[in-house]
Specification:
The chain is flat. Helix 6 (283-299) links the parallel strand 13 (270-274) and strand 14. It folds into 4 domains: 2-121, MutS, DNA mismatch repair protein, Chain A, domain 3; 155-358, Rossmann fold (3-Layer(aba) Sandwich), CATH 3.40.50; 494-585, SH3 type barrels; 587-666, Ribosomal Protein S8, Chain: A, domain 1. The protein is α/β, with parallel strands linked by helices. The chain has helices spanning 14-40, 91-121, 123-149, 201-216, 251-265, 283-299, 311-319, 351-357, 362-371, 374-458, 464-482, 553-565, 575-586, 598-614, 630-641; strands at residues 2-4, 7-8, 51-53, 56-61, 71-76, 83-87, 155-157, 162-167, 180-184, 190-194, 228-230, 234-238, 270-274, 303-308, 323-331, 336-343, 510-513, 518-524, 531-536, 539-544, 590-592, 619-623, 645-650, 660-665. 24% of the residues are buried.
Length: 666
C-alpha cells in the first residue's frame, strides 16, 4: 500500500483509486479550458501559462485587462503588474478538486488506520527487529570505521594501565598525523607533559583521552597491535581556554571552575586529563596550585595526565614516586616540533637556542643567561644533552629495527624462493616421469600391435624367430614401465650403450641394436633425423643410427645359419600379398607431423594414408601437437574431405588429448 515516504499507492483501495482518477480527469479538463482561453485572448495575459494559487488553477492577467477575463482574483504580483485570476469557467472544477482532495486524505487516513492496527498486533516483534537492525547497522558502522581508520583490537585491563603503540589522533588525517608511543598507569599513575607551545602536548593529551573513550565504546583504536586500554568509569577533562566575557570568567577562573568539579568526581577508576595545569595566573602561585591538584588526584588514586610550562612541575615529577616526566620533541635545527612524545624526559624551553637562530643579538642572549642562576643553566644544558642523546639513541634503535626487518624480509624471500624452486623441481620431475611413462606405454602398445600382426603372418610363414625377438622387445619395455616410479633424478647421465660403435652405417651391413636386442641388415641408410631401417627376419624396424653396434661373432654366425636354413616363401602367396605383408610389417599405426609446415604435414599424411590402406591398417594415430592449433585444424579439414577416412576424433586422456587425432580408415 505504501510505495515510499509519505506516498500511498493508488491501488491501496478501490475508493482511493476512483478519487484520484476523478482528480486527474478534473485537472486535465481545467488545463484544456485554460489553454483554450490563453490561445483565444493572449493580449490580456501577462504570460501565456497556467499557475497555481492557494491550490486553485489561475492565469496571470494584466490589471488593465481584468474585465476581459471574468473570474476570482486570488493573488497579485509583488510589483502589482499581474493579477492571478481563476476564470469562472474552471471555478466549479476547482471546487470539485478541493472536495476530492479532502476525500482522498480521509481515505488515506482510513487505510493508515487499518495498517496501524495490523502493525500494532505485532508491535513487540517489530520493535525487537528494529532494535536488532539498529544493532547490526551499528556493528557494520564500527567495522567500516575500523577499516578506514586502519585500527586494531585493544587489550583491556581494570588496573588503570594505558599502553598505546604508535597511537594516532583519530581526527587527524593519516598522512599528516605523527604516531606516538604513550604509557601511563604502569610504574606511575601521573604523567606530566612539558614543552613549548604548538609542540604537540595537547594533541598527545587528546589522543590518550579519545582512544580510551573509543575502546570503551567498543571501537577499534588507531594504534598498532599490542596496545592496551583500561576500563574507566569516568574520563574527566579540562582542555582548552573556556574564558567567557558574558560570565566574567578569566582563563584561570574557567580552568579552576572545571577543576573543582573534576576533583569532586575523581576516584581510582577515573582518568583525569588537564591541559596547561595552573596557567592563567602568577607563575609561582600557579605552579604551587598545580602541584597541590596533582597531589590530590594521586591521593584519590586517579590516573592523571597533565600538560604544563612550569619548571617546578618538572622537578616535582622527578622527586615524587609514581609521577613521570614526558616531553614533546623539538628539532632545534629546523626550529619546528616533531610532535613525537618522549616519556622519561622533561621538556626544555630552548628559548636561548631558538632566539639565537632567529637572529637575536648574542649580547642580549648573554645578558639573559647571566640573569638566570648558574644552577638553572646547568639543568637546562643537562636536559638538552639528555634529549639529544635520547634522540640519537632512538634513531640508532630505529635503524637497527629497519635492518632487522630487512634481514627478516630477505630471509623470507629466500625461503619462499627455495620452496618455489623445490616445487617447480618436483613438478618438472613429475612431468618428466609422466611423459616418459606415456612414451613407454605408447611404445608398448605399438609392440603389442606388431606382435598381433606377426601372429597373423605366422599362419602363412615361419616367423618363430621374429616372434621371439619381438617378445623380448615387449618384455624389455614392460620392465622399463614397471621401474618408472623408482626413477627420481632427471640429471643422471644416460647409460652407455655396450658394444663397438661403427664409424659409418652402410646399407646392406649387418648391425646389432642393443636397445631392442635385435640383429639385422640395414636396408635404408640414416635419414636427416639420424634414423635408419633395420631388417630382421619379417621385421623392418626404424632405429637410431647412433644406437647401432657391430654384432658379436656368434650373432654373425647365427644370422648366416638362418639365411641358409630359411625356407622359401610358399608359391601360393601372390606377389601383391607379399608386398602387402612386408608393408604391414614395416608400418606403424602412427605418423609424426611435429615440426612440419602445414603443406609438408598434409603431403606426409597423404602418403602415409596410402601406405595404411595398402597394409589394411584400420586405426591410425596422427601426432600434430597442440601449439597454436593451426596444424591440428589443417589435419581435421584434410580428414574431413578424405574418402579413405571413415571417422576421426581428438585423442582422450592417455592418448595425447588434443595434441593427437585418432582416425579410422575404410
Amino acid at each position: 500500500a505504501i510505495t515510499g515516504e509519505n506516498e500511498m499507492n493508488d491501488r491501496a483501495s478501490n475508493e482511493l483509486y476512483n478519487i484520484r482518477r476523478q482528480i486527474k480527469d478534473a485537472q486535465s479538463s481545467i488545463r484544456e479550458i485554460l489553454e483554450r482561453l490563453i490561445r483565444k485572448n493572449p493580449q490580456a495575459l501577462q504570460d501565456q501559462l497556467v499557475t497555481m494559487r492557494d491550490g486553485r488553477y489561475c492565469v496571470p492577467v494584466k490589471p488593465e485587462k481584468k474585465g476581459e477575463v471574468p473570474g476570482v482574483v486570488h493573488d497579485t504580483s509583488a510589483s502589482g503588474q499581474t493579477l492571478f485570476i481563476e476564470p469562472m469557467a474552471v471555478v466549479e472544477l476547482n471546487n470539485k478538486i478541493r472536495e476530492w482532495t479532502a476525500a482522498e486524505q480521509e481515505e488515506i487516513n482510513r487505510i493508515l488506520g487499518i495498517l496501524s492496527g495490523k502493525v500494532g498486533i505485532n508491535k513487540d516483534a517489530i520493535l525487537a527487529d528494529i532494535a536488532l537492525v539498529g544493532h547490526i547497522d551499528f556493528m557494520q558502522a564500527k567495522a567500516q570505521f575500523a577499516l578506514e581508520l586502519d585500527g586494531s583490537r585493544p587489550k583491556f585491563n581494570d588496573q588503570g594501565r594505558i599502553i598505546l603503540r604508535r597511537a594516532r589522533h583519530p581526527l587527524i588525517e593519516k598522512d599528516r598525523v605523527v604516531p606516538i608511543d604513550f604509557s601511563v598507569g604502569t610504574d606511575y599513575r601521573t604523567l606530566v607533559i612539558t614543552g613549548p607551545n604548538t609542540g604537540g602536548k595537547t594533541v598527545s593529551l587528546k589522543t590518550c583521552g579519545l582512544i580510551s573513550l573509543m575502546a570503551m565504546a567498543g571501537l577499534f583504536i588507531p594504534c598498532s597491535d599490542g596496545s592496551e586500554v583500561s576500563t574507566f568509569t569516568k574520563v574527566l577533562a579540562d582542555i582548552g581556554d573556556e574564558q567567557s566575557i558574558e560570565q566574567s570568567l578569566s582563563t584561570f577562573s574557567a580552568h579552576m571552575t572545571n577543576l573543582v568539579q573534576i576533583l569532586k568526581l575523581t576516584k581510582p577508576t577515573t582518568l583525569v586529563l588537564v591541559d596547561e595545569l595552573g596557567s592563567g595566573t602568577d607563575p609561582t602561585e600557579g605552579a604551587a596550585l598545580a602541584i597541590a591538584i596533582l597531589d590530590e588526584c594521586r591521593r584519590k588514586g586517579a590516573v592523571t595526565v597533565a600538560t604544563t610550562h612550569y619548571k617546578e612541575l618538572k622537578a616535582y615529577a622527578v622527586e615524587q614516586e609514581g609521577v613521570e616526566n614526558a616531553c614533546c620533541e623539538f628539532d632545534t635545527e629546523t626550529l619546528s616540533p616533531t610532535y613525537r612524545l618522549m616519556i622519561g624526559l622533561p621538556g626544555v624551553s630552548n628559548a636561548f637556542v631558538i632566539s639565537r637562530k632567529l637572529g637575536l643579538s648574542p649580547r642580549i642572549i648573554e645578558n639573559a643567561q647571566s640573569i638566570l642562576s648558574e644552577e638553572s643553566l646547568k639543568v637546562e644544558e643537562l636536559l638538552s644533552s639528555a634529549e639529544r642523546h635520547n634522540r640519537e639513541s632512538e634513531k640508532l634503535q630505529q635503524e637497527i629495527e629497519d635492518l632487522r626487518d630487512e634481514v627478516k624480509r630477505q630471509s623470507e624471500e629466500l625461503e619462499n624462493r627455495k620452496k618455489q624452486i623445490e616445487k617447480e623441481r618436483k613438478k618438472i620431475l613429475a612431468q618428466a616421469r609422466e611423459e616418459k611413462q606415456e612414451m613407454l606405454e605408447e611404445v608398448l602398445e605399438k609392440a603389442d600391435g606388431i606382435l598381433d600382426e606377426i601372429k597373423e603372418i605366422q599362419k602363412m610363414e615361419n616367423s618363430h624367430d621374429a616372434e621371439r625377438k619381438l617378445r623380448a622387445i615387449r618384455n624389455n619395455l614392460r620392465a622399463g614401465l614397471s621401474d618408472i616410479d623408482a626413477e627420481r633424478d632427471d640429471d643422471e647421465e644416460p647409460e652407455e650403450i655396450p658394444g663397438e660403435k661403427p664409424d659409418k652405417i652402410r646399407e646392406g651391413g649387418l648391425y646389432y641394436s642393443p636397445t631392442l636386442d635385435v640383429t639385422g641388415i640395414v636396408i635404408k641408410g640414416p635419414d636427416k633425423g639420424g634414423n635408419c631401417i633395420l631388417s630382421s627376419g619379417a621385421l623392418k624396424l626404424t632405429v637410431a643410427a647412433d644406437s647401432l653396434r657391430y654384432p658379436k661373432k656368434e650373432e654373425v654366425k647365427k644370422s648366416a645359419t638362418r639365411s641358409r636354413k630359411e625356407p622359401k616363401r610358399s608359391s601360393s602367396v601372390s606377389r601383391a600379398e607379399q608386398i602387402r605383408l612386408n608393408k604391414k610389417a614395416t608400418m606403424m599405426p602412427e605418423v609424426q607431423l611435429l615440426g612440419m609446415t602445414v603443406d609438408e604435414a598434409l603431403h606426409t599424411l597423404d602418403r602415409y594414408l596410402d601406405d595404411c590402406v595398402i597394409s589394411n591398417i584400420e586405426n591410425v594415430r596422427i601426432v600434430h601437437g597442440k601449439g597454436t592449433g593451426a596444424l591440428r585444424s589443417a589435419v581435421t579439414q584434410f580428414l574431413k574431405k578424405d574418402k579413405r577416412v571413415r571417422s576421426y576424433r581428438l585423442g582422450t586422456f592417455g592418448e595425447g588429448e588434443d595434441g593427437v587425432t585418432i582416425a579410422e580408415l575404410r
